[in-house]
Design brief:
Blueprint (H helix, E strand, L loop, with lengths): L2 H21 L5 H8 L3 H7 L3 H26 L2 H21 L1 H9 L8 H18 L9 H15 L5 H16 L4
Helix pairs in contact: 1-2, 1-4, 1-5, 4-5, 4-6, 4-7, 5-7, 5-8, 5-9, 7-8, 8-9
């Protein structure tokens, strides 16, 4: 893919996440294209249907949060990287919550935007847990999916507006549990 086409695709995906998160299925494809600074024809060349755009936007956000695990480990000690990643994951889930209506339409069309989700999340969490266990900062007996489900649970009880501080405190508690008996 040419560099300009790749940039256009990325701008479209960013604009789509914003639009679908704010307006759900009511998001206008023309407005998404305009927000991305491209024409509607460019949008349709990359994403022939609304469902294809929603699915690609969801997968792109998932890739960003999962890929950030390695980036954070390059910059911070493993337990700190885990905590920062958990914040990113909660923010990602909040974005996905906003896209829920649009994702339901994708699923109704027969696509499965979640097919890769658990594997990608498990790999990202495993990367963080393994680095933490190797450094003696995190327990070595944790199932990565248990951490993922715990994060999902935190979101469920803190998803109301104004609950982000509570989510942060609960993430601190979860991290403390991941440190217990470390080393």
């Amino acid at each position: 893919m040419r560099a300009d086409a790749r940039r256009n695709r990325e701008r479209l995906l960013d604009a789509a996440v914003r639009a679908f998160s704010e307006r759900g299925l009511d998001a206008s494809l023309e407005a998404i294209a305009r927000d991305a600074g491209v024409g509607i024809g460019t949008l349709y060349r990359h994403f022939p249907t609304r469902e294809a755009l929603v699915e690609a936007a969801y997968r792109n956000e998932l890739a960003r949060v999962c890929d950030s695990a390695t980036e954070l480990l390059d910059q911070f000690p493993p337990d700190q990287a885990m905590r920062l990643w958990m914040d990113r994951f909660i923010d990602y889930l909040t974005t996905k919550e906003g896209m829920a209506e649009a994702l339901k339409a994708v699923i109704a069309s027969g696509a499965d935007p979640f097919a890769e989700s658990l594997d990608r999340l498990s790999t990202a969490i495993s990367t963080l847990l393994d680095a933490g266990a190797k450094a003696g900062a995190l327990r070595s007996d944790i199932d990565p999916l248990d951490v993922g489900f715990a994060l999902g649970g935190i979101l469920l009880i803190t998803s109301d507006e104004g609950q982000r501080d509570r989510a942060g405190r609960m993430l601190d508690l979860l991290l403390d549990g991941l440190r217990y008996r470390a080393g």
